[in-house]
Every structure is written in structure tokens, then in C-alpha cells.
Amino acid sequence: MASFDILVTGGTLPDGTVKDIGITGDRIAAIGDLTGAQAGEVIDASGDLVSPPFVDPHFHMDATLSYGTPRINASGTLLEGISLWGELKQIASVDEMVERALAYCDWAVSMGLLAVRSHVDTCDDDLKGVEALLHVRDVVKPYLDLQLVAFPQDGFYRDPTARANTLRALDMGVDVVGGIPHFERTMADGAASVRELCEIAAERGLLVDLHCDETDDPMSRHIEALAYETQRLGLQGRVAGSHLTSMHSMDNYYVSKLLPLIAEAEIAAIPNPLINITLQGRHDTFPKRRGLTRVKEMQAQGITVGWGQDCVRDPWYSLGTADMLDVAFMGLHVAQMTSPQEMARCFTMVTEENAKIMHLDGYGLAPGDTASLVVLDAGSSIEALRLRPDRLCVISKGKVVSRQARNDARLALPGRPDSVRRRHKISDG
Ligand SMILES: [Zn+2]
């Protein structure tokens, strides 16, 4: 008779099937009907959703949980956020950054968010953020996969020491090459930065993830240069363009040429819906643009699109809870992904598709995959988006790392049930 360390029974998977999952050590050992199997611990997930963990492919862990220090962003714009962060990083210490980042990782684990790609600012001669987050990456490694991107926030060429410091950060062990071409002094400098950053990645065998065209300016076309350099250097499948908000405002004819180039280069897109809807369109009167890139249109071309979170309680965004379902919920609304198939896709975007973008090994619920999963108080992936429910149990690398009691509301109404959970029986189609 089969025996496991942990057996998760009766859970509904995101594809709607009901299966038991047996875990041995840090691996999924079996999945299917495991009736009669023995286990050190049995977790009854009957009626609940069991998913691979949430994944965030775009975050800023050096800035998180700093909201209000040294002041709040009065205009609500990207540019005031950048200048505010410039003040904050002068006064922040390595210890304080470590403390904020670890506190954020606690939030993430409690939400079943077990892999995060964080950009780390390299425009600081002391590289305090890099030192802090390299340390945090080691500390959280047993339970959270933290991937770091060397991010020259003030411009790879525009900031006088950014280029040298970015290279130094990569030498220190930062995983991915970042950039911000739309923030360079000229379009030409932006294109040159894309070229050099892709060459650095090709030489070092690294992935690329650029903040690309995070603007309402329809003429910001650095994604075109990124697609060109990716195919020129043979980096297909290893490059992501984050934000791509200018595409929202681009000419439709131009986009009809651009999307096949992105698809050919196998570039992934990472829109960040909470932040894009908050920061973009701030210079508009009415109609006021949404500022989200063309998600469904890219997916129709076969382009991988993930949803990123970007910010929680920092100079750019005052809210956030490390819940990737909040991110997908906003994306679903702003991109109008409202059919049952599109809603289900929004769930896979914050799980499987984000994992693919980060090149995570062993992600999933198949035998041999890393034993990481989350049990949610919802009946399906679409219901999870609607409820953004409690994470009843989170398992990371074969260990239970978070539990939360089911938390039904207690009603005091004559002739009505005494509790309610807001689940709904109607089929999601
Ligand atoms: Zn960002």
C-alpha cells in the first residue's frame, strides 16, 4: 500500500478534475485516486480548490512596505514615484530593506505566493538594495523562490554610474538583466540600451526582463527594438517585456505589424494591471485611457502573457496584500476577460504562465514536480477569482508553511441559515 509524508485528499484542481495528491519529501509522488494510501499527515481538501502556487513575475521588493517614507506620492504619477524612491533609497539602510522584504515574504507565503521575480535598483553606488535582496534570496530559499533582476531605475545611460553598477550587480549574482529604455534621455539612447542589455544577457547566458514602454506615449516603441535584438541574438523564449503600456495607445496598423514580431521573438509580456490602471492616463482629461497593454490581442497571436503585481505599499502604490488573485481580478476587469474561458485563463496567468515566464523548474502538480501547492476556500479557479478567498493551507517544497482556519460569517437573521460563505453553485461553464 502506498505511503506518503503528506496526502491532500479530494481537492478540485484548476482544470476542474478531483484528485488526491501524495507528497514524499519535497516532491509530488503521485496524483489521482489514492484511496487507501497511508500518510504521516492527511489534509482534507474535499470541495476546495487545490492549485500549484501563485507566481509573481514582476515586483519591487527593495521598495515594498515603505509607503509614506519619507512622504506620500501626491500626484500619483510614475515620475513622482521614481523621484520619491530616489529620496527613500538615500536614507534606507540594508538592514531596514531586509526587514521589509522578509515581512513581505511572510505575507506572500500566507497567500500561497511562493515564487517572485523582483527587480532591484542598481542606481546606487553602494548597491544597498542588491546586498539586501541577495541576502533575502538566501534566507527565503527553503520556502520561496526569489529571482532578482538588475534594474537601473534611473536609466542605464542616463544615470552616470548605472551601467557600471548594473554590471557589478550581475557579477554579485543577480539573476536577470533589466532596463528602462523609455526613461533614457532620447529614443536613440533607449534603443541603444536595449541593444547593449540584450548583448550582456547573451554573453552571460541570462534572462532579460525590461521595464518597456511604461508610458501613454504611443510613439514609445522600444518593444520593437527588444523584439529585433532578441531574434538577432538568438534569445527567443528568454526575454520579457514588462508593462508595454504604450501599446494601449499605439496606432492599430502599427500594432498589426508589431505583434507578429513579438510572437516570432517569443517575448513574454508582463502587464501589471493594478499599477497600470493607477499610474497611466494621469495626463489625460476625458476620455481617460486605461493604460493596460493589449492582453487578449497578444494571446490571440500565441504570445505568453502573465499578470504581475509590481508594487505593494511603496512610492507608486498605497495598497496591495501579496494576493495574486487581486492582480488577476483587476486584469480580468480592465482587459474585459469576462467569458468563462478568459476568466479561467486569468487564473492560469498568475500560476502556470507566470511560472513559464520565470523558467521555474519542477512547477506543477505532476509526479516529480516540486511539492508546492495551495488549498483555497473556493470550488473552482473562477470562484477563487470572484471570492479571493482564504488560503486554508500552503505547502512549499514538501512542508506545510501556512494554515488559515475557514472563516464563515455568522449570521443572526430569523429564519435564515446561521452562517454564510458566499460560495455559489451555478456552473462556471
Ligand atoms: Zn516595475
From TrEMBL:
This is Cytosine deaminase. It comes from the Bacteria. It comes from Salipiger bermudensis (strain DSM 26914 / JCM 13377 / KCTC 12554 / HTCC2601) (Pelagibaca bermudensis). Keywords: Hydrolase, Metal-binding. One of its GO terms (biological process) is cytosine catabolic process. It holds the Pfam family Amidohydro_3. The keyword Hydrolase applies. Its EC number is 3.5.4.1. Residues 41-401 form the Amidohydrolase domain. The keyword Metal-binding applies. GO terms for molecular function: cytosine deaminase activity; isoguanine deaminase activity; metal ion binding.
